[in-house]
Specification:
Strand order of the largest sheet: 1-2
Order of helices and strands: HHHEEHHHHHHHH
Helix content: over 70%
Length: 216
Amino acid sequence: MRDLPEKIEAMIVEGGLDAGARLPSERQLASDFGVSRSSLREAIQMLVSRGRLMSRPGGGTYVTEPPAASLLQGAFAPLEGLVREWPDYWQDVIEIRKSLEGDAAFYAAERANDDDKARLQSELERVSGCFSPTDAAPLARADVEFHMSIARASHNVVLIQIMKGLFGLMEQSISHSLEALYRLPSTVEALEAQHRAIIEAILAGRAEQARTAAIE
């Protein structure tokens, strides 16, 4: 059983709360975690001292950028430059995405709660409505958000942070792929069918099927 600061950190990551997001009220958090407000304040203060949260007197508590995410984003920054300079590099990105996103889908099928499932269905509809015949960027961005929602539903904090660190790299990879795929017939219909196959497997709790659909 994780202690309270770790539970709060997990809630931040799994809930997709980015830097600058405000935490729910003390009353709500104390109720959600089943603890006293004094225990909650102590845990929040601990996270403030670690630089994970920031408290504003009379203005609530806010998420700061986690050190791990900052390190990951910095580590992947040189790779984003390589993608621009070496067009074939995106194939290497796809290889690592197969592993990460296959695992994300697998664990999401095992662990997604009702809120996760509602968010997954919402992201599916959003990515389905982002097609533009002349610009792949909006669909690429929505596609990355779609895959991030699956990662969050996995409730694996390390996997979520790695995916967040790869966000920019994934977006470039997806844009590159879509620019090529737009030249093929029925691309959008095929992409939507693949997305739906992943989500349907997750919602049904079929973990291996979800992994296979994500890899495909």
